[in-house]
Amino acid sequence: MAAVSPYLFYFTVYSFLGWVLEGSYNLYSAGTFRKEGFLKGPFKPMYGCAPLLLLTGQDIGLPFPIFLMLALIIPSAVEFVSGWLLKGIFRKQWWDYSGMPYQLQGHICLKFSLYWWGLSIACIYGLQPLVHFLYLQVERVWTPVIPLALLLFSADLLWTIRTRRRGLRELDPREQLELGEG
Q1: What is the pTM of this model?
Q2: Is the separation of the CB atoms in 16 and 53 below 8 Å?
């Protein structure tokens, strides 16, 4: 568990910061901080996954040009797979880039891929040293809290899946036909 502990901490911090980032962007663009996400709690797991994958690439000592390329590809791949899975499972698209140029199935587009690329570089080289320092400061407290954090995240995930699946079953028959369920 000791080897996993910092990565669970990073995932939690970056998932929370992703929620803050999306809320801030929504406040700027739509006038309200609250934007519906997949989970009910203040976490966006996509924002936790991409940095962990990039940190893994950094840990194995990839050459810098390769790492820069991965910093563009990984966040876009995480966003695409997340959007594709969410739409396939819950029949809902939480974001839609279909009106933007150079997009793929509305899940990713070049403009936001470039944003994620810049944020990934800033995250790994600017923010990660601070997050790692924070981890070192709270490690003694964090390690015993891990089971509680995992329990809370799992409860949020299970509750969200249950309520969203129930919402699909409560569709009227016309909506079920449109979705291919009738």
Answers
A1: 0.84
A2: no
